[in-house]
Amino acid sequence: MRKRIAITMGDAAGIGAEITVKALSDAAVYDRAVPVVYGDRAPLEDALSFCRLGHLRLKEIHSWEEASGQYGAIEFFDAGLLRAGGWTYKRNQAGSGGASFQYVVSAIRDAVEGRCSAVVTGPISKEAIHMAGHNYSGHTEIFAAYTHTDKYAMLLSGGGLRVIHATTHVSMEEACRRITAERELEVIRLAHRGMRLLGCERPRIAVAGFNAHCSENGLFGSQEAEAIAPAVHQAQAEGILAEGPVPADTVFCKALGGMYDIVVAQYHDQGHIPIKLQGFRLDPGTNTYSSMSGINCTVGLPIIRTSVDHGTAYGKAGEGRANEESMRDAIDAAILMADNLESGV
To answer: CB within 8 A of 225, min separation 6: which ones?
Structure first.
């Protein structure tokens, strides 16, 4: 059975509407999904125009029961928050930031209430949602708050590499404080769960060190001995295939070489840099990405949530040259995870 997939449009000032309509211009999406966009008519109409997708049309619906999932008609819920000329491309603004927040909240509500099988999120601007009065550091924290989830983590997948984060949108100083044995074990368990939802039955998990050279037996820090190693030992006792701490300067090479299925990264850039090196390719001649693959999942929620693995890309917004590959990847991952969840994983 085709899965009902909610797609939030993202910030209208960025590339969210564009990559959404481009992704839904592929008929193959409709073979496995009934996608419905949460957004506003005006930005979606604009995107269809500058992307030259005149063979597609918008179809407003008012309930999931009206969704038919027929290719050629992009079905959407109109939030009624943005009118033509009501936003400016390429800049942070409270109007589009607040609207993007409401799209997400509406999709979460419908997923929690069982109206759809998964939520796929387009890119939002943290600054813009803050301008609108919503003090969250990103999608992950919004989903956690609105699903009342305490134990969750960000899982990224792209270019044959998968990474889950012990800490994300915090300072390095705060990340140091958050590396505890309890958090490490929690994330190892979430890595195991997330990989099973992505179709890996017995995932091999590497836990990266936090300090250089895994602290050289305490010369450079204590996180490895006090937090990471004890958590790995407990996970192993639970039957999880975990190893670590593994030095961060080699662990991703080992994962790409096939030794591990996923890496637990200790902080934001430790995990994001290798993922984006694998999934993103920039053409310096055109200053556009020839490849922008990869997804972001929030693991631990009571619902399935996947996302593009990039931001609003204000520099190219409104021009029709954004790459929709990551959006397609996120839709495919949402369908896969929803299928596996339904099968009892």
So the answer is: 215, 217, 218
pLDDT band at 293 (very low <50, low <70, confident <90, very high): low
What is the spatial distance between Cα 139 and Cα 123, in angstroms, rounded to a whole number? 9
Judge whether 293 and 331 are in contact, CB under 8 Å: no
* Separation between Cα atoms, residue 244 and residue 136, nearest integer Å: 32
Residues 155, 163 contacting (CB under 8 angstroms): yes
Beta bridge partners of 242: 205
Between the CA of residue 335 and those of 4, 130, 300, 324, what are the distances in Å? 9, 31, 17, 17
Q: Structure tokens of 318?
A: 């409104």
d(CA 203, CA 263): 10
Q: What is the DSSP string of 229-269?
A: HHHHHHHHHTT-EEEEEE-HHHHHHHHHTTS-SEEEESSHH
Residue 24 DSSP SS3: coil
Give dist(CA 56, CA 72) in Å, integer.
5
- Give the separation between CA 99 and CA 102, rounded to whole angstroms: 5
The DSSP call for residue 113 is T
Residue 154 has pLDDT above 80, yes or no: yes
E strand or H helix at 77: strand 73-78
The 3-state DSSP class for residue 227 equals: helix
Q: How far is CA 302 from CA 44, 91, 96, 152, 172, in A?
A: 29, 34, 28, 10, 29
Give the percent of the chain with pLDDT over 90.
86
C-alpha span between 303 and 187 (Å, rounded): 18
For residue 219, pLDDT beyond 90: no
β-strands 304-308, 118-121: how paired?
parallel
Identify the pLDDT of residue 3. 97
Token pair for residue 332?
């495919």
| Predicted local distance difference test score (pLDDT) of residue 291 | 59
Q: Check residue 343 and give its pLDDT.
A: 86
Q: Which strand (E) or helix (H) includes residue 142?
A: helix 139-146
Q: What is the 3-state secondary structure (H, E, C) of 41-67?
A: HHHHHHHHHHCCCCCCEEEECCCHHHC
